[in-house]
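Final report, closing paragraph on structural work. Over the funding period we assembled a curated collection of sequence-structure pairs, and we close with a single example.
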Amino acid sequence: MQKSAAKPQTRQKAEAGAAAPDFVPNRTIVLVGLMGAGKTNIGRRLAARLNLPFYDSDSEIEAAAGETIEEIFRNRGEAVFRDGERRVIARLLAQPTHVLATGGGAFMGRC
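Its predicted structure, as stored:
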């Protein structure tokens, strides 16, 4: 694996003694993992620490559909849910840098 020559950006402290993160990502941080692994909890904390917006793809899917994920599965099926999930995640990734927690099955593709 080749190391990147790019140096991470750093934030200047706004005020003397003010705590500011040393690392400022230039790309969205995406958290993936099994359902219940803590992606949302860790994502919120990480976003707060980095002073970035936080998005949870499951919450965004529910808002876009006007239904809970369980209702989408029950009423429309997994294929429709996964299609909507892909579209919502693509929309979120097109936004400015933020922290994104994805659903447990978001990166399960067809083999």
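Confidence is low (pLDDT under 50) at residues 1-18. The helical segments are 39-50, 57-65, 69-76, 78-93. We thank the funder for supporting this effort.
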